[in-house]
């Protein structure tokens, strides 16, 4: 009998019974005031007169008026660079305990994003909130006695001066509470290995020793890990070795494009719970099974603003124009894309994280990630977000009964004009000509801007099918395997030329 599991489940359910009703709008007002109060004596707080903002009737409006938008480059050049020079109290009291290294999906030199102890505490609190939300998913008691396999970046952080550096998943895993260590797999020794292939090989070799009930990580890398375990033990599916696997916690990207290829590795369906953890903080998690949307964490060290995702507000590099209007949580509407703006206990202020989101339920503050500002395909007026591209990929998966584990594309100029040139990491027998026709027809029917573009400068679609492994090798070449690394969905022409040269060299 799962005695411990019954106890844990009982605690979770009891907390669920006594918890008070949330009011995300009020919670955000409290968070903003707390952020301003705690940072008012920093160099940043003094420069933008947080004392004055705190005294007005509407701090949110004054904050949006007096403090400009920042992306990583602008805040790092103007403010965070002072931290690297040894200065204190720059954008947050004291100095950061960690820096999250993030190359995002660009492949450029890693960003170094401050992570304070307050942010570590906020991430831990958000993780506990997510555990308590499991009461809504009606998991059996024995689930709470199984292991949780977390596949992120290495926990062997780089020691530098007075802080540690690493990817946010490695920083988070290195700070897991002691009570959780008995459930955590692959364990500290394996998690500290920097080489991703070596780490996954050891996971495969040790897999029989573990009773895994949940796995967590970026979908593409989780799939590769599961395939490695299956192949190493000559299995039909992962449930042959982990029969109690019941939950997958996805994160960082939309799970939809990976659903078909992921499910092919299972014997039976499992519960998929989306989470939204970025280098800048733990943003949202799926709190109930009735929806695949995620609930913003509105009471825990992050203040959110939302800029309508309009081409007039987005510059060529993905940053915002200075006068782009920002809405508070009280002002947003469902069904519209917004650029996500964050201010945090790590000293990020009105910070453009680079993601776009859509509200599915404003009252509950539930969202879906719809894309990236830099991956907005609008070269010839087609106005396609990643969310719309994902839907097109899912459509052709269903139409041709095929699996597409990765893709990328570019609005590329050919001799006769612009085409959307797609590369699909696909398994199946569909011909490229059939995929071209299906993609073009779907996008025209699903998106009026694309249809208009097709009648003007956009000549059509080109498709090339390639081995999915080429996408993973591209990431390995340009960045690093595993961790928070994600494939760029939309490339500019220069980067796409590098990509096509790389693909050609693999043949």
UniProtKB/TrEMBL annotation:
<dbReference type="InterPro" id="IPR055377">
    <property type="entry name" value="GH3_M"/>
</dbReference>
<dbReference type="Pfam" id="PF23572">
    <property type="entry name" value="GH3_C"/>
</dbReference>
<protein>
    <submittedName>
        <fullName>GH3 auxin-responsive promoter family protein</fullName>
    </submittedName>
</protein>
<feature type="domain" description="GH3 middle">
    <location>
        <begin position="297"/>
        <end position="362"/>
    </location>
</feature>
<dbReference type="Pfam" id="PF23571">
    <property type="entry name" value="GH3_M"/>
</dbReference>
<dbReference type="GO" id="GO:0005737">
    <property type="term" value="C:cytoplasm"/>
</dbReference>
<dbReference type="InterPro" id="IPR004993">
    <property type="entry name" value="GH3"/>
</dbReference>
<feature type="domain" description="GH3 C-terminal">
    <location>
        <begin position="388"/>
        <end position="492"/>
    </location>
</feature>
<dbReference type="InterPro" id="IPR055378">
    <property type="entry name" value="GH3_C"/>
</dbReference>
<dbReference type="GO" id="GO:0016881">
    <property type="term" value="F:acid-amino acid ligase activity"/>
</dbReference>
<dbReference type="Pfam" id="PF03321">
    <property type="entry name" value="GH3"/>
</dbReference>
């Amino acid at each position: 009998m799962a005695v411990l599991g019954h106890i844990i489940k009982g605690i979770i359910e009891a907390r669920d019974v006594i918890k008070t009703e949330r009011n995300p709008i009020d919670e955000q007002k409290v968070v903003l005031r707390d952020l301003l109060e705690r940072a008012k004596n920093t160099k940043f707080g003094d420069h933008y007169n947080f004392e004055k903002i705190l005294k007005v009737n509407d701090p949110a409006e004054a904050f949006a008026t007096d403090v400009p938008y920042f992306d990583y480059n602008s805040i790092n050049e103007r403010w965070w660079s002072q931290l690297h020079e040894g200065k204190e109290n720059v954008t947050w009291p004291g100095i950061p305990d960690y820096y999250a290294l993030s190359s995002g999906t660009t492949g450029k030199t890693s960003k170094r994003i401050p992570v304070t102890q307050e942010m570590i505490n906020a991430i831990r609190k958000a993780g506990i909130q997510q555990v308590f939300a499991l009461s809504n998913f009606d998991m059996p008691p024995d689930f709470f006695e199984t292991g949780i396999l977390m596949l992120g970046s290495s926990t062997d952080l780089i020691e530098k001066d007075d802080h540690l550096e690493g990817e946010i998943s490695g920083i988070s895993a290195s700070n897991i509470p002691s009570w959780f260590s008995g459930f955590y797999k692959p364990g500290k020794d394996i998690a500290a290995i920097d080489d991703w292939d070596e780490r996954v090989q050891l996971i495969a070799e040790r897999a029989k020793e573990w009773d895994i009930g949940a796995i967590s990580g970026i979908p593409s890398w989780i799939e590769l890990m599961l395939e490695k375990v299956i192949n190493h033990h000559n299995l039909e599916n992962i449930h042959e070795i982990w029969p109690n696997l019941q939950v997958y916690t996805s994160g960082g990207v939309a799970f939809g494009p990976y659903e078909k290829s992921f499910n092919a590795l299972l014997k039976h369906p499992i519960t998929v719970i989306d989470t939204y953890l970025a280098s800048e903080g733990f943003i949202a998690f799926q709190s109930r099974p009735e929806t695949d949307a995620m609930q913003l964490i509105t009471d825990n060290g992050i203040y959110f603003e939302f800029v309508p995702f309009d081409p007039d507000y987005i510059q060529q590099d993905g940053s915002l124009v200075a006068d782009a209007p920002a809405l508070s949580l009280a002002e947003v509407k469902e069904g519209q894309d917004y650029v996500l703006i964050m201010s945090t206990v790590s000293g990020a202020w009105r910070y453009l994280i680079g993601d776009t989101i859509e509200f599915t339920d404003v009252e509950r503050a539930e969202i879906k990630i719809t894309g990236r500002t830099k991956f907005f395909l609008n070269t010839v007026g087609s106005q396609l977000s990643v969310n719309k591209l994902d839907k097109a990929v899912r459509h052709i998966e269903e139409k041709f009964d095929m699996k597409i584990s990765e893709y990328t594309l570019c609005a590329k100029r050919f001799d006769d004009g612009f085409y959307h040139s797609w590369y699909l990491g696909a398994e199946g027998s569909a011909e490229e000509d059939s995929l071209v026709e299906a993609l073009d027809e779907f996008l025209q029917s699903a998106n009026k801007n694309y249809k208009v573009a097709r009648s003007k400068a956009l000549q059509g679609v080109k498709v090339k099918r390639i081995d999915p492994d080429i996408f993973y090798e591209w990431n390995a070449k340009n960045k690093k395997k595993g961790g928070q690394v994600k494939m760029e969905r939309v490339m500019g022409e220069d980067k796409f030329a590098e990509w096509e040269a790389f693909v050609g060299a693999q043949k």
